[in-house]
From TrEMBL:
<dbReference type="InterPro" id="IPR019953">
    <property type="entry name" value="OHR"/>
</dbReference>
<dbReference type="InterPro" id="IPR003718">
    <property type="entry name" value="OsmC/Ohr_fam"/>
</dbReference>
<protein>
    <submittedName>
        <fullName>OsmC/Ohr family protein</fullName>
    </submittedName>
</protein>
<dbReference type="InterPro" id="IPR015946">
    <property type="entry name" value="KH_dom-like_a/b"/>
</dbReference>
<dbReference type="GO" id="GO:0006979">
    <property type="term" value="P:response to oxidative stress"/>
</dbReference>
<dbReference type="InterPro" id="IPR036102">
    <property type="entry name" value="OsmC/Ohrsf"/>
</dbReference>
<dbReference type="Pfam" id="PF02566">
    <property type="entry name" value="OsmC"/>
</dbReference>
<comment type="similarity">
    <text>Belongs to the OsmC/Ohr family.</text>
</comment>
Length: 142
């Protein structure tokens, strides 16, 4: 993958680091530093589940905003993701479920917009194909 010629045509590249493990810090080369912690304790810090969820929500929402605009709709969507950590020693997994609510449109139209968004969102593309990932249009949050 590192020899993939598409790296030479990048629109944006960042580098992230973690040199301390789960109980420490993750950081971006340009200075952003985030305290990290396990979700299984009460130590301060952000856990991988939260980081993944925020990344997915941000990408889906930005993509949805573009899709709404392309369809001549006012931007009203909002995104929520639920990330669950499951498993046992040596085999842990995330379950990822995103919901996109599009007030002002019926559920059929919202479902079409969400399907288009899911295919275009970069983070969704990384997760797609996994049986642990799903996205749905909803009228309101569960």
């Amino acid at each position: 993958m590192k020899n993939d010629p598409r790296w030479q045509k990048a629109l944006y590249t960042t580098e992230t680091y973690n040199e301390e493990g789960l109980e420490g810090h993750a950081f971006v080369a340009d200075g952003l530093k985030v305290a990290t912690s396990s979700p299984l304790n009460d130590h301060p810090g952000t856990n991988p589940e939260q980081l993944l969820g925020m990344s997915l929500c941000t990408c889906l929402e930005a993509t949805m905003q573009a899709v709404e605009k392309e369809h001549g709709l006012k931007h009203t969507s909002k995104v929520r993701a639920k990330i669950t950590y499951i498993g046992e020693r040596a085999h842990y997994e995330f379950l990822v479920h995103a919901q996109i609510c599009v007030p002002g449109v019926d559920l059929d139209q919202a479902s079409q917009l969400v399907a288009e968004t899911e295919k275009r969102c970069c983070v969704s593309q990384l997760l797609s194909g996994s049986e642990n990932y799903s996205v749905e249009a909803v009228k309101e949050w569960d």
